[in-house]
Design goal:
The chain is mostly helical. It is built from 6 helices and 2 strands, in the order ααααββαα. The protein has a two-stranded antiparallel ribbon. α1 crosses α5. The chain is globular and about 50 Å long.
Length: 165
């Protein structure tokens, strides 16, 4: 096995573990109002302009029928609303309702508590955490470019800082 293959194997393993640790850190969904799919969709809709079912399906790389089922359930619970395309297009777009955003914020507090526990366990400084966030954001943005996605973000990845701080 060459050095590049070893790095890829380790990267894949560590990303798999990170995913598992992060989901587990949130603990049981007790107290959370949203299903996981609703949480993910609302997070995306909160970050940008309203989107069509086709745009949502492309964003999450799933079939339109899958997104349609998830959005329909969210419509019934008044978490999103269907609006005409502000640009005059034929397709309807979806945006979060006030209730959807309220539930998202409440569930996010639980998720943030789990993320805080993970960072506290590392005993990283704020600077090290910021460096990790920058690298993770750069990785995600590179993957999104590769997949032809343009996801809205509240902050852009900056140049890496000194990870030894």
């Amino acid at each position: 096995m060459d050095e590049e293959e070893r790095r890829l194997i380790e990267l894949e393993r560590e990303l798999t573990l990170l995913s598992r640790h992060f989901v587990a850190s949130r603990g049981p969904r007790a107290g959370q109002a949203l299903e996981r799919s609703a949480y993910v969709l609302l997070t995306r809709l909160e970050a940008g302009e309203p989107l069509t079912l086709k745009e949502l399906a492309h964003t999450f790389q799933v079939d339109v029928s899958t997104i349609n089922r998830q959005v329909s359930a969210m419509l019934r619970k008044n978490l999103v609303e269907r609006i005409p395309d502000p640009d005059g297009g034929m397709a309807r777009k979806y945006r979060p309702t006030a209730l959807g955003l309220e539930r998202l914020r409440a569930d996010r507090e639980i998720s943030l508590e789990g993320a805080a526990r993970l960072i506290e366990a590392t005993e990283w400084t704020g600077k090290t955490t910021e460096h990790f966030l920058t690298l993770l954001s750069q990785l995600n943005q590179s993957i999104e470019r590769l997949e032809g996605l343009a996801l809205a973000r509240s902050r852009q990845a900056s140049a890496p800082s000194d990870p030894t701080s």
